[in-house]
Amino acid sequence: MKSSAGTVVLVALLSIGCASTYQTPPQTTATASPSTVSGSERGVIPVGQQIDVRLQQQLSSATAKVEDHFETTTVVDLLQGSQVILPAGTIVRGLVSSVEPAGKIDRSARLTLVFDQIRVRGRNYSIRAMPTQAFESRPILDEAKTVGAGGALGAIVGGILGGLDGAIIGAAVGAGGVIAATEGQNIVLPAGTIIRIRMDRPVEVL
Predict the structure, then answer these.
(1) What one-character DSSP code corresponds to residue 172?
(2) Contact 93, 70 (CB under 8 A)
(3) Cα dihedral 11→12→18→20 (10° resolution)
(4) pTM exceeds 0.85 for this model
(5) Distance separating alpha carbons of residues 206 and 199, to the nearest angstrom
(6) CA-to-CA distance for 81 and 39, rounded, in angstroms?
(7) In the 8-state DSSP scheme, what is residue 57?
(8) Class for domain 35-204, per CATH?
């Protein structure tokens, strides 16, 4: 897979500091159509629900600081039956909980991300979610051309359609949201990167 000069391939870790065991990711492309809530309780996003979000600014282990906040937006609608409980473009706030830049002595960079807030229809809800995968994404204009006039309106609201044919750049991220880079490289997640997150506690949004 081709990568830009500053972007590294993320590696899978099953625990912090253990890089020898890998987990096969469930799929290798980001979501390009509405997804469905896995639970049945009305208006509740359950534990284990996976949601694809688009990073709004670049994150790098070379410059990020602990407690830095960043914003992402949901890639597609999240449905419960015929009802949209999370519209595409919903803001999901993330937090850098720890960071280790690549150095001369410790050459392995690490970046730990958590997601702590979601804004649904103007109301903020506290959440707890961790990243599990990351995907490259083509420019938004390219995606819009791919969808064409017949594309679902909800898929391109706000110009945030996510990752059609997006190539995976990270396998399963380590326990606790730890992302590790290849030796001697800093982690760089460009703006537009699609991050798959997993809910670690339920949240009622209706």
Answers:
(1) S
(2) yes
(3) -80
(4) no
(5) 17
(6) 11
(7) S
(8) mainly beta
Report the amino acid identity of residue 23: Q
Whole-angstrom distance, CA of residue 142 vs CA of residue 119: 27
Low-confidence residues of the chain: pLDDT under 50: 1-28, 140-168, 170-172
The answer to whether 199 and 128 are in contact (CB under 8 A) is: yes
Give the distance from CA 145 to its chain's centroid. 23
Q: Are 21 and 191 in contact (CB under 8 A)?
A: no
Which residue in this structure is represented by tokens 């190539």?
A: 167
* CA torsion, ordered 3, 190, 163, 11, to nearest 10 deg: 60
pLDDT digits (tens, 9 = 90+) for 11-70: 333 233 333 333 334 444 555 678 899 878 999 999 999 999 999 999 999 999 999 999
48 sits in the region (left: phi over 0; alpha: psi -120 to 50; else beta) called: left
Query: What length is written for the chain?
Result: 206
What element of type H or E holds 143? helix 140-147
Domain residues of the chain, as ranges? 35-204
As a whole number of angstroms, the longest Cα–Cα distance in the chain is 54
CA angle at residue 155 from 84 to 140, to 5 degrees?
145
